[in-house]
Design goal:
The protein is α/β, with parallel strands linked by helices. The protein folds into 2 domains: 3-145, no CATH class; 149-423, no CATH class. 23% of the residues lie in helices and 37% in strands. Strand 1 (105-109) and strand 2 form a beta hairpin. Helix 2 runs antiparallel to helix 3 (77-90). The longest helix has 65 residues, at 8-72. The chain is elongated, with a radius of gyration of 36 Å.
């Protein structure tokens, strides 16, 4: 027997050992690969979760910023929430929305001017079950609309040529407050002649002409909502404007002492001719006729709202030299509004206020669907603590000075919330 034959069992045993070891290594490798694969899967899923959270955060940021901008522009309460939700959804991919149908929670702090959105989704569709069954992703975004300058002169018409028109040598001084023109026309605001107009800021939705503005107006601004429309409609619906207290009150003429008129509905028009009328506190409705104040006459009252309604003959007008000294109520229906016209009552002839006498209006002149002309000479509003004009269109002409003022404490004085300009909208969180 040769030596080679004697070595065969040894060699066969060694080969078997090698084969056994290879099997063990394969088993060890397979066992070792399990946590590696789990880790890789988890890393991939966690990376996806991070990307999803970043997308949700960006969408939430966009949503609260859009809603805060709407808050600064006077949209209704429900609109602001819907704007936040619509913007949030618009900033997410359709695939992500389909995989994670979410319902963000939007809250609004109106006094603090804050919009907050909270979003939560569950990633159990992505994260491997080897580590955890589910993971909740939460994001939060908060935006603020910082205080700006209140609007005290506002032309509401959305399309009018010359929504605001200042001409002649009339000067307009809007003290510590802003001018807003909602018209999208290429000449939505116009200034001509030697007239000068100064305000804290100017904003026109369309464009403007003229150069005597201080400061230079901003073009293509957001259109502001009518801040009085909803409350005015509710207040109007709460009172009786059809039952006449007095029919055809006619003419009050030449009286040296004040004639006191009680609140109620006066039908058929009233003319004050070189006389004096004091309105008792409350709501004075003038229906189906003209309220006319002639030169040297006085119309006075504290805590009063003069409301015009009825047919196309209903309007307010005065002659140069007439005197106004009227203040709005600070509480209750029509608080902060001193003279207004029902939106459904549009006169054939324009509402007109002519300067030249003593002109003190403490409150808001509100003509939401009617044009208003302010003309004549002298000063209008120089003694008014709080004075704003909101009308469909506004024309200011003549050679007088119109002074409009809204103080920082205007809401404490009973005026409703007004739109604000030069607000800064920013993310807080």
């Amino acid at each position: 027997m040769s030596l080679r034959k004697h070595n065969l069992p040894v060699r066969n045993g060694f080969a078997g050992f090698i084969r056994n070891q290879r099997g063990n290594i394969s088993m060890l490798a397979a066992v070792t690969m399990v946590p590696v694969l789990i880790g890789a899967t988890a890393a991939l899923d966690l990376g996806n979760a991070v990307r999803i959270k970043a997308s949700l955060q960006a969408a939430a940021d966009a949503g609260v910023l859009a809603a805060a901008t709407a808050l600064a522009s006077g949209y209704g309460d429900s609109d602001k929430k819907q704007i936040a939700l619509d913007t949030f959804n618009a900033n997410l991919s359709p695939e992500l929305l389909e995989a994670f149908p979410v319902s963000p929670d939007v809250s609004i702090d109106f006094p603090g001017r804050l919009i907050q959105m909270d979003v939560q989704v569950n990633t159990d569709q992505l994260l491997t079950n080897f580590i955890v069954e589910a993971m909740a992703l939460r994001v939060q975004a908060i935006a603020m609309a910082e205080q700006g300058s209140p609007v005290c002169l506002m032309a509401l018409n959305p399309t009018a040529w010359m929504g605001l028109n200042i001409q002649g040598t009339a000067d307009v001084q809007a003290l510590d407050c802003a001018v807003q023109v909602n018209s999208n026309h290429q000449v939505g605001m116009r200034q001509t002649g030697g007239s000068q107009i100064a305000a804290e800021s100017f904003c026109v939705h369309g464009d403007y002409s003229g150069s005597n503005y201080t400061p230079t107006p901003r073009r293509h601004c957001m259109r502001e909502q009518d801040p009085l429309a909803d409350k005015f409609a509710a207040d109007l619906a709460s009172i009786d404007v059809t039952t006449c207290r007095e029919d055809n009150p006619g003419v009050i003429k030449g009286n040296a002492e004040y004639v006191v008129m009680q609140p109620g509905v006066y039908c058929g028009g009233l003319s004050i001719q070189q006389g004096k009328v004091r309105l008792a506190a409350g709501i004075h409705v003038f229906r189906d006729g003209e309220l006319s104040i002639s030169a040297q006459s006085w119309l006075a009252g504290e805590g009063v709202t003069i409301l015009l309604t009825g047919n196309s003959s209903t309007r307010i007008t005065n002659q140069a030299g007439a005197n106004f000294d009227v203040s709005a109520p600070t509480t209750g229906p029509f608080s902060g509004i001193v003279i207004a016209q029902d939106p459904s009552s549009v006169p054939t002839k324009i509402n007109e206020i002519i300067g030249g006498g003593y002109m003190r209006f403490n409150g808001i002149l509100y003509f939401p669907k009617q044009p208003l002309k302010i003309t004549g000479n002298g000063e209008i509003g120089s003694d008014s603590p709080q004075f704003a004009i909101l009308a469909d269109t506004i024309t200011i002409e003549g050679n007088g000075v119109l002074t409009i003022k809204i103080g920082a404490d205007y809401k404490a004085a009973g005026l409703p919330q007004l739109p604000e300009m030069k607000e800064i909208v920013r993310l807080v969180k």
